[in-house]
């Protein structure tokens, strides 16, 4: 990953995190605000319901008072006070009164709390009415659990006494607290009310009623209802109907208590769709703004990182040019900051490098001349010495032994001719190295070149007799484009060196092989081997490890290989031998 | 003197009025209202109590039995004037009343009567010889006289219209099935022509309609509630308890556990039901036969005991049971509701419903005979109980047999109920029997 990419990523992450933190903060604040508003709305609805509940209670009270004031109740009260023991005539009276007053429940109860007549369960006469002791004196309506033939239900009741004599006659009447009651409530739009009739010890989903009867999905309310049953206090919660938050509803649970126990739980609910849609809009806006911000930040980061990294890239490019030897590479100094200082330092560094290179080249050149001079002196010194001695012998023979002069002269001239020839050879070699020809390329089979070289040296090897030749030539070796003469010459140098390296005999191995993009030829000997230092200087012109070498053979070989776009390397292990490897590219074919 | 003369004249006038009011007179049509709306005139074993009484009363007007029973279960002569049996009670010989004719003029001879009885009882061998009728059976028939006195054994033929042709004081003049039955006096009745010229029976009238008709003076004789007081001066006659209200368990009931049945029997508080819902009529009972018939009914306790009921129920987790009732009985639903309420106290849940197959049924059955053994047998048959194992004629034998029927609470007796009728003030000479018959042959109507 580039520095620019890292910078871009860093800037983008920073912007993203900032946007995320801000969005989360806005989201949290908004959510709290909406929840507070929702709770306030639910409380308002709950307050409205309590008011409605109070109003309905007052209505029941009025109806019960009206029933207690009827002539029928007064007559029954009178009969009770007169000691009338036959209550058989009252069995149906409560139903008559209930029908008159439009009450769901109505019972006539004597002073001992015994039911004389029951509208809701006519067969209940003679049984005690358990609510009477605690309900006597209650001014308003109260909740009561009412037993019916087919089960229990809840009712909103009121009790009033008809007092004609000492014995009171209680009229306890009420309205059923069920879906019908819910449907008669005046509740705000957008809300709905459910009623849980707490008639059993355990949660019973069938006891949860809405306007149509048993509420659908009642089990989802169990935890909320159980919370109210446990605490006896208001509670609230969110009922989620599906994965879509817009389908959820907020419910406020209100305990409905009777004189002694919790008899019901009223659940006032409002849809969270508006809230959810608003939240969704906010989220969409936040995402849009955040996304836009991130894009802007990325664009800004691109511009900024481009601005920051341009000098760095220039420096990197200049460094690459320097690395490939272009010491003229310069970097523009565009600022005075750290990058500017870096560019200035870089430019100074290249100047210094150029100067150092010039100095090194000059020193190398001096060293080369010195080496050349040393080699020339060394090469020329050897033939010159016999020349000098021969000439001095001729002079000395002329002066001291003229009778032997002719003989000496003949010997001396032959020596002179031989040494002069030797000098000419030396000079020719130097001259030849100085004017190495350019390769004349044509398709060449390297195996054929190798065989040709071995053919040349066959006689010499047979003469020595103690060197075995091992040839491992790859038959699938492709042709390459090369100058066969030069390759022959280069390979001959390697073979000659190998033969020289094995004065006591050994094995000379030539092996060729093809790789994906090159052909290789390995020339190995089992001679004394070379030191690493010798290996490193082996291809230096005029460097030789042999007594009579010119030090130009491997230099010429390297020059030929280099002119063919190849490379030559050497691996040597002391006392085990040396292997030269020439690798020539195939694309020249 | 003149004053004394006026007083004597006034006394004579009052005396003449009194004599005129008590002297029977012939003529007139008695208007009767009945709940039942039969399509055929016969006594059927499957009749409800109301239908039974109505059909039995109609049949009693049209036909006679060989013998009748009085309230003390003593046999009284009817078409048969004398009888005797062998020691094994397998063979009975009856001497028939002479000169009796059916409404169609044919003689009610021994052979005619033998054919009628033979058709009714395939297990009897009925022979006629002169004025003598012989009934034989493979098994002993100690209660044959009570059996012959049952309404279903009335001596009656059928005409081409399938209408009954008997020997009774009235004959069928017109019958519109389910609506109207008109009877005319049998001029040649062996017991003498009735005072009434005829009886018009309005069928299918509810008790409320009957009461209103009586109140408006549109009818003379109705079926009344035993607890009702006479309206518009009407006289009400209440019989001895002749019906049994009880809880029965159909064969497919889920209440097969005798502990559940015992708990239910112990949970029911009969007294408030009798006092309030039956308005004091009837008697709480735990026996099939009424006390007036046996004298031992009190030996079967009617006292509720909820604690014992709960103990009896124990840990039996009985599912809710369905209690059904006869919807034609206006008091039945409320009584069923009360029973369900009592049962709930003991931990039993009864759902009063007419839908579906009931587990328990609140029924009324007729106790059709004053003879205890016959009555127990007939009631047992109505209650789908096995035939009572009556070993002898003693009360102990009867008690043991009834106890065996009630063992295991196959039936839970609740009340013995009377039947009642009411007549308007223009009806005279009405002496209804304590066993529910109307006896209209001696009734006469006040002149309008």
Protein described:
The complex is a heterodimer of chains A (589) and B (448). Chain A has 589 residues and is of the alpha+beta class. Chain A has helices spanning 3-68, 71-81, 93-101, 132-135, 179-184, 222-231, 273-323, 338-400, 405-434, 446-464, 484-501, 532-537, 553-563; strands at residues 105-109, 115-118, 142-148, 151-163, 168-176, 191-197, 208-210, 213-214, 235-239, 249-257, 262-271, 442-444, 467-472, 480-482, 506-514, 518-525, 567-573, 577-585. In chain A, the strands form four sheets. A six-stranded antiparallel sheet of chain A has the order 8-7-6-11-10-9, with helices on both faces. Chain A has a five-stranded antiparallel sheet with strand order 2-1-5-4-3. A five-stranded mixed sheet of chain A has the order 13-15-16-18-17. In chain A, α1 packs across α3 (93-101), α8 (338-400) runs antiparallel to α9 (405-434) and α11 (484-501) packs antiparallel against α13. Chain B has 448 residues and is of the alpha+beta class. Chain B is 29% helix and 24% strand. Chain B contains twelve helices and 21 strands. Chain B has helices at residues 2-22, 49-62, 110-120, 144-148, 207-215, 258-267, 270-277, 291-294, 306-313, 332-346, 372-382, 395-406; strands spanning 29-33, 67-69, 75-77, 80-85, 91-96, 125-129, 132-136, 157-158, 164-165, 170-176, 180-185, 198-202, 221-224, 235-248, 283-284, 321-325, 350-352, 360-366, 411-423, 427-428, 444-445. In chain B, strands 13, 14, 15, 16, 17, 18 and 19 form a seven-stranded mixed sheet that branches. A four-stranded mixed sheet of chain B has the order 1-12-11-10, with no helix packed on it. In chain B, strands 4-5-7-6 form a four-stranded antiparallel sheet, covered by helices on one side. In chain B, α6 packs antiparallel against α9 (306-313). Chain A binds chain B through residues 86-88, 91, 121-127, 149-150, and chain B through 272, 275-277, 279-280, 334-335, 337-338, 340-341, 351-352.
